[in-house]
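Aggregate trends can hide what the representation actually does to any particular protein. This step matters because it turns folding into a mapping between discrete strings. For completeness, the protein is quoted in full, as a sequence line and a line of structure tokens:
=====
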Amino acid sequence: MRSRALNAKKGGWNEENMSQALDDVLNCKMSERKASQVYNIKRSTLKRKIKEIKEKPGLSSSDVTKPYQNVSTKIFTDSEEKCLVDYCVASSKMGFGLSRIKLRQLAYEYAIKLGKTLPHSRSGSQSPWEINKQAGVDWLKYFLARNVDTPVKEELRVQQTREEIKKTSHHEQKEIATK
């Protein structure tokens, strides 16, 4: 049994405090240590956010103030995700809707083609995306939550739809031949 009280401040900050702390530190109004005390943010978290802003040009404090829940699994930009959604919609309209597995494989191939940085594994080994040659389940979950209008079919329904299209086109071909 654990006999000591937990005292971690994990995630004890809000977006407004983080944004203000980042602005104060980046504009040299306050030191990192002082800002972490004043705004009740862990210093390591504040340092990581400052590093993100400094490493990526064009990134502002408002871009990194959100907690990492959904941000860490977002690999593509909004326009790149829109391309994926448009592809899913187009293939669905043609009767070849993508299953969840095919969508994950497509996302992996798209990320490789665009030269995206793939999510890493915690153990420091090869990326799970590279091992499985497909995007992760978490990525798919958050992708579908962000893009609700994405048509994704279950594998069985995709197979049934394809068979129905084949039967319909074969039946229509027979009718045309008999006329």
